[in-house]
Amino acid sequence: MSNKLIGLAEAAAMVPDGATISFGGFTTQRHPMAFIHELIRLRRRNLYLFGHSPGGDWDILIGAGCVKRVELAYEADEAFNTIGSRWRLAVERGQIEWEDYSNFAMVSRFTAGAMGIPFMPIRSLLGSDVLTKEVLTPEQRLADPRTASKKLEVMNSPFNTGEKVVLVPAIHTEFAVIHVQKASLNGVVRIEGQSFADVQQALCADTVIVTAEEIVDEDQLREEPERNLLPYFAVKHVCHVPYGSHPYAVFRYYDYDPRQLKIYHDGSDDDATFQQYLDKYVYGVKNHAEYLQVIGGEERLSGLKADPVYGYSPNLKRRRLD
């Protein structure tokens, strides 16, 4: 059995400037935030992101100046912010290149990449302006061969005369980074609760890096092999990162941190207060362990622990936090 365990900083340092990358999770759930903070501390630039439903993971990367181009459905933190402030500002200021699809279209694109086929036929964009508007110019697409030559293609179904289908291009990335509940040293992955599109994202990437709440014995995972969503041969590196998704939730481990999300979103639409957030919680700490102390340490974290039955914290105060 190979040992794929490496340190978080070492794993993040493998991602070069300009890399294509996707991150696992969904809005306020299971984003690899400790890894993303490392990328910001490394001051990575010109990253090219692919995602279906990112949240503050993308927002803070975009705000920190790490991102050049994105392809996505939306970027938001549910009730905390219906659109990411740094993402909105970057678009309004022309600081980022972007293309948008529906959520289902992006998942279909990841699925095509995972299956090794060039595109996926769907119906979900028919009747939508997303079908008729294309943001990336032909020149921008030609300038980067990793971008599909066109956003999509509408054609008649070869099987049903008169029926239209939309072909969306497959996604292939250099890296996928996902945060999970359990992994073994050689890369067998267990995801509890919803998996979102993490598996598809992993299978269309050259290099999969997994950050995990727990490193467990492989024999334990093999007792229920049907619950292991990624096999060892799909994963290149594993990092042990407890609370690696904070301030986002990890089902059965901890809930999202409404106070930290409020702190972020209260100031993220202002350049000065956003920089203060980065200075305090990202640049001002050496690593994830120091970050956890700065946000409140064990006292804060213990209040987020998930109920073993529900998988989240039913008594967590989520509103009127002032």
Topology:
Blueprint: H1 8-12, E1 20-23, H2 33-41, E2 47-50, H3 56-63, E3 67-72, H4 85-92, E4 97-100, H5 103-115, E5 119-122, H6 129-132, H7 138-143, E6 153-156, E7 164-169, E8 173-183, E9 189-190, H8 198-203, E10 205-215, H9 218-222, E11 228-230, E12 237-240, H10 258-267, H11 271-281, H12 288-294, H13 297-302
Parallel strand pairs: 1-2, 1-8, 2-3, 3-4, 8-10, 10-12
Antiparallel strand pairs: 5-7, 6-7, 8-9, 9-11
Name a few traits of the molecule.
single chain; 322 residues; alpha/beta; nine-stranded mixed beta sheet; three-stranded antiparallel beta sheet; 13 helices; 20% strand; CoA_trans_fam_I; NagB/RpiA_transferase-like; transferase; CoA transferase subunit A; CoA-transferase activity
Give an overview of the whole structure.
The chain is globular, with a radius of gyration of 20 Å. Strands 1, 2, 3, 4, 8, 9, 10, 11 and 12 form a 9-stranded mixed sheet that branches. By secondary structure, the protein is α/β, with parallel strands linked by helices. The protein has helices spanning 8-12, 33-41, 56-63, 85-92, 103-115, 129-132, 138-143, 198-203, 218-222, 258-267, 271-281, 288-294, 297-302; strands spanning 20-23, 47-50, 67-72, 97-100, 119-122, 153-156, 164-169, 173-183, 189-190, 205-215, 228-230, 237-240. The protein contains 13 helices and 12 strands. Helix content is 30%, strand content 20%. Helix 3 (56-63) crosses helix 4 (85-92). The longest helix has 13 residues, at 103-115.
